[in-house]
Here is the input.
Amino acid sequence: MPERQHATWAELLQEAVEKPGRTLEAYTAFHNYSFGNALLALEQCIRRNLQPGPLNTYQGWLERKRQVRKGEKGITLCMPMPFKRAAQTDGVQEETAEPETCYAFRFRAYWFVQAQTEGEDTPIPSIPGFDIDTALCTLNITRTPFDELNGNIQGFAHGREIAVNPLRDSHTKQRSTRSPTSCSGTPHRKSWWIARRPRGISARLRRSPSR
Here is the structure.
């Protein structure tokens, strides 16, 4: 029976949820890749005792004057593979129309981590810092003033707009001052959820009341 090359998506997600620090470790090592591929690459590095680090193809390492060591097996990632197919309208093939480009996702072992190569030193790219304004702009989300009078609501969202309670940090500090266990107490004190509201009413981000 051939050796399995990588874990399934279900196994990767289970590890990300159950193993503390796994998501951060994957992002730190492979932040230029999608979340799924970062977990996939990290899982293979751990299983094969490889030092997680910069990924590149065989040709990519050659361009950086590094050679993949003989006998090294590639890291498998999920990648889009383009293919052509005849254009169709309402299920009927159009013979005169230009073929349309489609994509299918396939697993391919085309990548190698730096630990599998040798040659000139390669600078490790820095991890970009998180900027909330850049993130919201990229996601096309707008921040609006928080106008909710209920202090138990920590924020709300409506459509592509969000509002955050400016006093949310002070609430946490007050609870921490009153009780040493308020930040690490029972689960109900730390639970948060989005309350679904009928159409036309904002969703609310609530904090369960302390008991």
User: Anything to note?
Assistant: The chain is about 25% helix and 30% strand. Residues 59 and 67 are 9 Å apart (CA to CA).
